[in-house]
Amino acid sequence: NAGVTQTPKFQVLKTGQSMTLQCAQDMNHEYMSWYRQDPGMGLRLIHYSVGAGITDQGEVPNGYNVSRSTTEDFPLRLLSAAPSQTSVYFCASSSPGRPEAFFGQGTRLTVV
Amino acid sequence: GDSVTQMEGPVTLSEEAFLTINCTYTATGYPSLFWYVQYPGEGLQLLLKATKADDKGSNKGFEATYRKETTSFHLEKGSVQVSDSAVYFCALSDQPNISNFGNEKLTFGTGTRLTIIP
Predict the structure, then answer these.
(1) Looking at the DSSP assignment, which residues form a beta bridge with residue A78?
(2) Which of A27, A36, A75, B28 is the most exposed, having the fewest neighbouring CB atoms within 10 Å of its CB?
(3) Which residues of chain B have pLDDT under 50?
(4) Do the Cβ atoms of B44 and A45 come within 8 Å?
(5) What is the model's pLDDT at position B103?
(6) What is the pLDDT of residues A96-107, one digit of tens each?
């Protein structure tokens, strides 16, 4: 019973590099979301998806891309990493009509 | 837009003390309210929830009551333990109507770090 799985757990990037943060869920949830967690700011929504092929922007989308080709996977892409993207990233999934969201264990990203 | 204002920490208490962490919110629709907990090195876990006014959420000795008149959802526990040390987040999910749950867009407070000393 894996729930929401995020990879990698830790990553160091150089400014300008690109990478993809992976998120997969095995609960057949329609909704998936990406958040970033920064000190003193709580979690802020980056992008979200209400189903395969449907994505939308959250509060802080700049510098990030997403796609949702399957129900299970929702990768987050950084096209050109910047130091301001140093953060802990959390993926979450949930079902419509059910109030609980399930979170992965997070990816700690450092951009130098 | 929606917002959550949460009591700033850190909060340090002795074991068996009474805990209150304040949370107030602003929302335009029919929000569901949540408390999430994050233990060191882990992701967030749902602690308790309330989906309409006057609902009381409870779990593991923690309680919170959805107060629409004061737009509040304060977290309380009568006797804390060392194992309760964690970061606590108040959050809301706003809905355009009372029967349309959706939690793909959660709005979080800044989090309160709680440390319990033996």
Answers:
(1) A19, A64
(2) B28
(3) none
(4) no
(5) 67
(6) 877 788 999 999
- The 3 state secondary structure assigned to B53-110 is CCCEEEECCEEEECECCCCECCEEECCCCHHHCEEEEEEEECCCCCCCCCCCCCEECC
Question: DSSP 3-state assignment of A84?
Answer: helix
Mutate to test the interface with B, among A103, A105, A108 (most CBs of B within 10 A): A103
Chain B neighbors of A42, CB-CB under 8 A: 4, 6, 89, 108-111
Q: Confirm or reject contact between A33 and chain B (CB < 8 A).
A: yes
Q: According to the model, what pLDDT value does residue B100 have? A: 53
Which residues in chain B touch residue A103, judged by CB atoms under 8 angstroms apart? 36, 43-45
Distance separating alpha carbons of residues A99 and B32, to the nearest angstrom: 7
What's the confidence (pLDDT) of residue B76? 98
